């Protein structure tokens, strides 16, 4: 599409069902009750001048530019604050209105610099547009009076500026920060003429204030006051392409606004069904990594990991990789080969990688980074409900009365969802937080959790079973629901189990450290507070009982009748953008796309026929088992797409040993990541801006990713995989990801109705999409569980083998923060580092004092597996006995200390519990230093060979 | 090899422990089924061949069962659903 700013209807849409008909400038218009006159006019194709109204926030009625005349009404009401009425007759253009508007506009302009021609918003400024719209030609008030023109610009935020001289004090920014983002960082300071927008306290600038750089205020600002710096640098966009964020599982859609081949800005797309026009700092601003100098764009090879890299042609690199893989296959068999798909890549790319491994390599040794995050969700939800996915769409939260957030930190991990949740909480919904740490949601402006249960890390199952105990023994279950919807025998078994006194909150308090009285109250609130929804994250899955915890969550939801309608449900918050999709696409070693086990002959036959190969019916190896097998000498070659297992997987040394033992490691990525230190072949990847395909977000929403620029490496990632397959003798000939999507739809029932064309028309769709649900499925299990009756599963609390003791008395748990993403490969290469230059160790004041540690001190963090150093931050967010850190920076090597304990059912690593000791230190450990120098050495790229002299 | 075997034993014991609550006999079959559904052949061969003295009783019985009788068939909903594979009606779950 060419460039047109996103349409703005002035006020938010009304969700009322009842319709109202009125007449605007002689035309009959029908809209839902509660719509403003301004929006009704805009929907009918007209436009009433406005300044203080924008459709992301509620109307405010301050600028008085949007006046209209209404038959029978006195005066000239503001159309943005006047709701439509049946039979209303509205005039939007009359001589009287024109005169009034001109007067208003004149006042605004008289205090505004008239440097339009040189202003970066020239051509994209509502003040300019509205001045033209009201026909303002000259201004009667001069600049000689008091004005704001000399105010200095605040450039502290790396991505946008605040130039108060251009501010018209419409407060759209203030309202956006409050209503849309829920941060309340901005206020209008002062009164009357002296009033101006201010971030935080007097001494604050944007960077030091509470601002989280979501960009909502920038989007709302009608002038160049708050504006992306990139607009000033590059110029106004000329075209816009709608695409999907490649960071987290919320899956926000954006308009990528382009000038030539340059991305000017990412503007949240108002019709995006996951984000409804909102965004966070990552998707909105942190895309600079795409052009970072570290990005590798030509293929490289080397014989040994001790050699420097050699840049070669695609043909040579692919030929080199293929000959290595073939030689290994000839000598050791297909079982020595495998690969890893990425939750960051598209569905089509992931599908191709597993197809390559199963049908060309000939092995089922394919796994995905979802192994280390949400594999227990797959196991747990499939066992209890019959589907490996969350039950709701994000909109559902607006009908929730009680939200239970466990093991998730939405304001950091899933910020745009967190903003929706906070909005609902401000409307009066109740909140229960179960987390070892006092996450921000527990208390933020205008939101306070009813209960925060600060459990001991590793005791999720005990806490949830204790909640079930309360619900069952106090008779709070929804018996009718259970009888109708669930297997009654299994329920009775389970109810007997949880009713046992040993599962009471009072008895379990000894292990969970959660005050029994709070736990009882929280359980009662969940069971009786109306629509109750559970949201959970990696604090649930990344435990030795991850799968059991997911099942315990499902049990709670079923026994209270909280599955199968809007407002309730069980909602895994997925970490990476395409975790759901990567799992759907057959990335696990035991199953084909659509979660169908390899032992099922019929499913195999379907794929064998389509692919023209025969498939091994046995499950393959999981990541950790591939590494074990490598050390044992039975696993030799791996193709890793878009994943840095050395940094993201537990027990770094174990990963390093496994990789070092392999003969052929092929890394396909944007950067020479940590894993690439052990690679023989490096295939450069493309960014989400450089390719077509689809991502599936945490609500099962399949959304298009659209190419806005040519791949810097010359190929989209699916093309690279196809070339590798063809170098190995396959004859794939996909010319566009839509053809891969067709293959997925053909082979996978839940995607049967999905096609590229359909997505172009519909924007997005939530699976299952098939004959039964042609329009997709926002809420699952509406008329009974997918697999018939819901199943209650007895979840016995089995303490982890990782125990504290005199040598390692503290429990380490890990997490992430807002501005950084996962291992940080992308966000560390953007200005987001101003918010998080290094990983810090959070420690309770008592524990810190016992060890003589102060804020900012270097500390040695040691576990049974290894040790690292990082700086300490002293805070009572964590309980005594618990320490916390993030893993965004390779220098920290937080996973040097994590163990290889894992979930019993899926081997999802137990990142969330490691027994550690912390002591003062002078700086980096030997391992960090040795690793640093080895890593530098292994990243060397040989200089171009000199042309031989004639 | 030794470390790998120890890892397999740990995995098997952990699976067994999480089924204890459903009673001994069902737990043996569920453990056997779980291992058969998710382990690669070399892992199964590894645990068959190695020392079983550190296996918990349920895990040991499960390994015996697997070796003598093979896959006991789906015992838990997770494996049952996956193994049934109703093709075109799949809910991807
Ligand atoms: S960027 Fe977001 S958080 Fe910061 S002031 Fe603007 S709306 Fe508020
Ligand atoms: S900064 Fe922009 S949005 Fe905020 S009050 Fe000023 S003009 Fe309005
Ligand atoms: S990182 Fe997540 S919340 Fe932020 S813009 Fe991207 S999808 Fe949205
Ligand atoms: S737009 Fe209605 S009063 Fe400002």
TrEMBL record, chain A:
Show where the 4Fe-4S ferredoxin-type domain sits. 158-189, 202-231
Q: Which UniProt keywords apply?
A: 2Fe-2S, 4Fe-4S, Iron, Iron-sulfur, Metal-binding, Oxidoreductase, Repeat
A GO CC annotation recorded here is: membrane
Q: Where is the composition biased (Polar residues)?
A: 919-933
Residues covered by the 4Fe-4S His(Cys)3-ligated-type domain: 96-135
Using the UniProt annotation, give all residue ranges assigned to the region (Disordered): 919-950
GO process terms (BP): formate metabolic process; respiratory electron transport chain
Q: Looking at the keywords, is Transcription regulation present?
A: no
| Domain named 4Fe-4S Mo/W bis-MGD-type: residues | 238-294
Matching entries from InterPro entries are given as: 2Fe-2S_ferredoxin-like_sf, 2Fe-2S_ferredoxin-type, 4Fe4S_Fe-S-bd, 4Fe4S_Fe_S_CS, Asp_de-COase-like_dom_sf, Formate_Dh-H_N, Formate_DH_asu, MoPterin_dinucl-bd_dom
Q: Where is the 2Fe-2S ferredoxin-type domain?
A: 18-96
Gene Ontology molecular function: 2 iron, 2 sulfur cluster binding; 4 iron, 4 sulfur cluster binding; formate dehydrogenase (NAD+) activity; metal ion binding; molybdopterin cofactor binding; NADH dehydrogenase activity
- State the family named in the UniProt similarity comment for this chain: In the C-terminal section; belongs to the prokaryotic molybdopterin-containing oxidoreductase family. Belongs to the complex I 75 kDa subunit family.
UniProt-recorded name of the protein: Formate dehydrogenase
> What lineage does the source organism belong to?
Bacteria, Pseudomonadati, Pseudomonadota, Alphaproteobacteria, Sphingomonadales
